[in-house]
């Protein structure tokens, strides 16, 4: 490391660590900005554009411009699709002022999904900003049972896609065969690597994540309302135009009392009916609202409760307060080290003398009221807004995608494809629903599930490549263009040298402009981050080795699901009653033992880092701000809308702690550096750097 009068310069590894830290925090910060109305005002294409004015969300805007706006079909949508329909939907969700995890005392579903998305997309953000270094690997032999070979194959495939002709070769071979075994060893090994990582993500999201079983319940509720039989029959129509018209009627047809009275001439008002997708959204959310209302009523009618009517009213009214009022109450809670419940009551001059047990009930009541309002707001924005942008968006998108649909309809049996998807989803739901401690699926079980159904995907892609030369050409051109964004522009592009790629020099320039005192504080953080990244990837590699050497679980129910033929048909239902009948509640179980071990993927550590940094209100009347990884917070997060604990956390390690331990060592929490000093000193400048480099309008 050199020292000059102007300050220090970063080593290549320190530049990479700085890039990693700043991109990790910036991507999630940009996602968080969508909570606030007006986030699209200076977003840039495809929304509001001011000439030569950089985007305020450069990382996300860059991904949209590079990978979505030129996507076949989507590139042909009219300007109003983005600037009117999607713009108004996003603004409606922002204006809804949906609740914060801090106020609920648990990690919310939206928080879980948002952090997962952020942890995944930060990789293409770094890849397109810094570039992918070239790999020179003469060894083309791969053993599918060795973690090192699978990782190396994926790296080599990325290199061949970005700098070589792998995409052309893959498309040509896929048109010839639908059998994975007939592809070259590189493709087989990279395919295995991707499959294992997808299984690891599914396992973590659905099993180890506190909200996993609730997310699974939502998917199951949506799935039972989808009219698969009608959809499959409609897709069998030979004439493409007739098929598209029929599908549009299935998906977009609206029915309500006002629809009928308008048709009869009895009324002439606005039709308030909902299309199929809106009906499903509304129905599923109303099931939750019903359960939440029941919980609220029990608390309100509890004669043994110490909560007064004024206290209940104050907590209920908080849900409808303005964003600014809620922010101030939240700030007072954090500043005075009191819970959000006490802060709310104090702001309304309501007595705040609550015992621990009464405070727990009050926090639950606040959670219920916030959850009810969230769901009502989502229904209003997505299902009852005027004009109906959801219906218009679907209609416009289908019109733009008509050439794509025509080509796919000619190349593939879409009815069969929908059946394959239904079968996969059904098996996933059956396997992932935890019945008892012995039925907790492992990463190996998810691998077996994916391998059972992988041929359906292979068959679909093969038929498209073989029978749809035109559409294959469209998407092949798009894929090549997408891959080109990962190429490095710097002369030196060596995978053996870890740096920030094309951003190495710009980041050094930003660092050199800091004061000497700031630099001295940041350098130790970067050195610690280098070690943390090494440990994180080494941990992921060890977990990959463990998964490859561990067979699936021996639970007979799971074994039957993953071993049965993928072509065995399951009954399709167009609708089902709300899941409130006896026998449909998920049993309480204790997650322990080897089945709860996480799989490979450094993104799991990044995901948990974002969740761990989520502030949660003190769970007692007074105290410090809680961490989202705390056992009591995690335990509360496992409950569904009815208040049933879907996955009970024992006194052992939580999923977050298991991932953390495998990165930092058994029992250690010192591996992940505190990046606040880096983000505070360079976060805004880094976003400005990305914005300036991404400006093309």
UniProtKB/TrEMBL annotation:
Residues 548-672 are annotated as: Disordered. Residues 8-126 form the PX-associated domain. Pfam families: DUF3818 (PF12825), PXB (PF12828). Residues 632-642, 650-672 have a biased composition (Basic and acidic residues). Residues 167-358, 364-487 form the PX domain. GO terms for molecular function: phosphatidylinositol binding. Residues 563-580, 591-601 have a biased composition (Low complexity). This is Succinate dehydrogenase flavo protein subunit. It comes from Hyaloscypha hepaticicola.
């Amino acid at each position: 490391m050199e020292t000059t009068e102007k300050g220090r310069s970063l080593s290549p590894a320190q530049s990479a660590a700085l890039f990693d830290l700043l991109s990790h925090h910036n991507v999630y910060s940009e996602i968080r900005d969508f909570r606030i109305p007006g986030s699209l005002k200076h977003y840039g294409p495809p929304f509001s554009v001011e000439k030569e004015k950089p985007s305020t969300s450069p990382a996300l805007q860059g991904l949209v411009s590079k990978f979505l706006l030129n996507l076949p079909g989507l590139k042909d949508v009219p300007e109003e699709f983005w600037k009117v329909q999607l713009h108004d939907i996003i603004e409606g969700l922002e204006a809804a002022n949906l609740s914060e995890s801090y106020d609920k005392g648990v990690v919310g579903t939206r928080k879980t999904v948002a952090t997962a998305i952020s942890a995944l997309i930060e990789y293409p953000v770094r890849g397109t900003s810094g570039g992918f270094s070239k790999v020179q690997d003469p060894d083309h032999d791969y053993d599918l049972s060795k973690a090192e070979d699978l990782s190396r194959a994926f790296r080599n495939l990325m290199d061949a896609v970005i700098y070589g002709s792998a995409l052309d070769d893959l498309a040509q071979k896929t048109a010839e065969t639908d059998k994975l075994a007939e592809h070259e060893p590189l493709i087989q090994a990279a395919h295995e690597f991707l499959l294992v990582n997808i299984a690891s993500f599914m396992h973590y999201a659905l099993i180890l994540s506190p909200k996993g079983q609730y997310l699974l319940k939502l998917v199951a509720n949506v799935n039972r309302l989808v009219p698969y039989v009608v959809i499959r029959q409609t897709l069998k129509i030979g004439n493409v135009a007739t098929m598209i018209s029929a599908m549009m009627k299935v998906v977009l047809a609206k029915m309500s009392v006002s629809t009928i009275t308008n048709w009869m001439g009895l009324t002439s008002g606005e039709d308030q009916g909902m299309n199929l997708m809106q009906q499903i959204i509304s129905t599923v959310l109303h099931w939750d609202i019903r359960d939440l209302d029941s919980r609220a009523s029990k608390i309100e009618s509890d004669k043994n409760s110490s909560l007064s009517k004024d206290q209940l009213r104050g907590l209920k009214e908080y849900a409808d307060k303005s964003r600014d009022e809620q922010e101030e109450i939240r700030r007072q809670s954090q500043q005075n080290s009191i819970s959000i419940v006490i802060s709310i009551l104090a702001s309304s001059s309501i007595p705040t003398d609550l015992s621990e047990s009464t405070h727990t009930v009050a926090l639950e009541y606040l959670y219920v009221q916030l959850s009810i309002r969230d769901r009502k707001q989502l229904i209003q924005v997505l299902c009852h807004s005027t004009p109906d942008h959801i219906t218009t968006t679907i209609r416009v998108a289908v019109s733009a995608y008509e050439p794509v649909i025509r080509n796919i309809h000619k190349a593939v049996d879409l009815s069969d494809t929908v059946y394959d998807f239904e079968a996969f989803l059904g098996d996933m739901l059956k396997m992932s629903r935890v019945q008892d401690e012995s039925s907790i699926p492992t990463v190996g079980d998810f691998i077996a599930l994916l391998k059972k159904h992988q041929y359906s995907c292979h068959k679909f892609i093969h038929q498209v490549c073989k029978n749809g030369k035109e559409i294959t050409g469209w998407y092949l051109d798009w894929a090549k263009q997408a891959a080109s964004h990962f190429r490095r522009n710097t002369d030196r592009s060596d995978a053996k040298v870890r740096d920030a790629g094309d951003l190495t020099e710009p980041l050094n320039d930003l660092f050199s402009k800091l004061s000497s005192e700031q630099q001295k504080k940041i350098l130790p953080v970067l050195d610690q981050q280098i070690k943390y990244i090494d440990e994180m990837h080494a941990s992921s590699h060890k977990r990959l080795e463990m998964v490859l050497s561990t067979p699936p679980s021996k639970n007979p129910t799971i074994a039957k699901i993953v071993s049965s033929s993928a072509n065995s048909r399951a009954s399709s239902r167009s609708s089902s009653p709300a899941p409130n009948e006896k026998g449909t509640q998920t049993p309480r179980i204790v997650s322990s033992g080897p089945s709860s071990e996480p799989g490979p993927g450094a993104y799991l550590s990044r995901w948990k880092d974002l969740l761990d940094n989520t502030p949660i209100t003190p769970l007692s009347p007074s105290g410090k701000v809680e961490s989202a990884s705390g056992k009591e917070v995690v335990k509360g997060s496992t409950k569904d809308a009815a208040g049933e604990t879907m996955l009970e956390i024992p006194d052992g390690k939580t999923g977050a702690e298991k991932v953390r331990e495998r990165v930092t060592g058994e029992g250690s929490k010192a591996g992940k550096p505190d990046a606040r000093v880096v983000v505070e000193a360079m976060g805004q400048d880094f976003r400005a750097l990305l914005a300036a480099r991404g400006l093309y309008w």
